[in-house]
Amino acid sequence: MKEKKVSEAINFRRAVRVYDSNKKIDKKIVKKCIEQAILAPSSDNLQLWEFYHITSPKKLKQISYACFNQPAAKTSQQIVIAVVRRKLWRSRAKMNSNFIKKNNPKDLNSKKIIGAINYYEKTIPNVYSDFFGILGFLKLIKSKIIGLYKPANKQVTYIDKRIAGHKSTALAAQNFMISMSAYGYDTCPMEGFDSDLLKKYLNLPKNSEICMVIGCGIRSENGIYGLRYRVPLKHVYFEK
Ligand SMILES: Cc1cc2nc3c(=O)[nH]c(=O)nc-3n(C[C@H](O)[C@H](O)[C@H](O)COP(=O)(O)O)c2cc1C
Mutation test of ligand 1: which of 16, 76, 188, 216 has the most ligand atoms closer than 8 Å to its C-beta? Predict the structure, then answer.
């Protein structure tokens, strides 16, 4: 299958609400697009995301129900759900430090490699450890005080970490949608869902968070609801 250029794929992508039930999409290509999704950058390269590829008719029905049976979910051929798994930070940090050690066996004593390993084994635990949000709050007070004298990172609270997880996962979700578009497949990102129900259907822990549900298929004639509207660039672009 010939892939579109990046600019073509970006332009082709629209939020498609109705998919053609006669046009099937290939599971393998959708999986490949998820593989491209996870090449997205992530905060501290922790990759605190998971992707659930829904293909079975029974599960599709459940997920659609949790998305209030909105057309983009109900007519989807397949669905991909991007989930934030903040609580995996410890294991993902360990995977990063193991990767660095394995790939730099001769440089384990170099300053650069020690620094990188320490980042995942000391700095990340320091940044991510929290106790019901209390440690994060104390860290914020500390950085506000430091910030009186020099630049200091103020994104240290529990909420900041949640936002960081969603930022990174949303970047991967966008990678996924553009990749799908490059193959001529359509998608619709959705945040209209009952997150508790979705977590139940996906067997996810309570502390996970649904970033986006993405309907997938091929647009039907009435699949796009209107012309694309964007606030003109002059309202959003500022050169300083
Ligand atoms: C985070 C997010 C959540 C969205 N949730 C929904 C949704 O629940 N249902 C829906 O039909 N469209 C949803 N959309 C699609 C937007 O309405 C759509 O992207 C926007 O109107 C612009 O249209 P375009 O994507 O075709 O350019 C969502 C988009 C984003 C980025």
Answer: 188
